[in-house]
Amino acid sequence: MLDIIALILVIIGGINWGAIGIFQFDLVAWVFGGQDALISRIIYTLVGLAAIWCISLLFRDNELVERK
Fold first, then answer.
1. pLDDT at residue 65, rounded to an integer
2. pLDDT of the residue at 61
3. Has residue 43 been placed in a domain?
4. Is 66 a member of any domain?
5. DSSP character for 64?
6. Which residues have C-beta within 8 Å of that of residue 17, sequence separation ≥ 6?
């Protein structure tokens, strides 16, 4: 479950960085009141931590498991 949450946060971060790169528009800052707003900083921190967590996905030996 933690892997899924981390991946969702990394996807949000990727979309935000894409918006910054293409449109020069920071979606997180716009939604939460600027880059210096506490909630924006929390979101940025969570996305960063999620990205660090996702590094571990590269080194795991996961087998596909059928869900029933």
1. 57
2. 81
3. yes
4. no
5. P
6. none
Those residues whose C-beta lies under 8 Å from the C-beta of residue 3, and which sit 6 or more positions away, are 53, 54, 57
Residue with tokens 């929390």: 42
Please write the tens of the pLDDT for every residue from 7-18.
Answer: 999 999 999 999
Residues 21, 16: Cα–Cα separation, whole Å:
9
In a domain, 65, yes or no: no
Task: Answer yes or no: are the C-beta atoms of 13 and 5 closer than 8 Å.
Answer: no
pTM over 0.85: no
In which domain, by residue range, is 28 found?
2-58
- Where in the chain does DSSP place strands (E)? none
pLDDT above 80: residue 25: yes
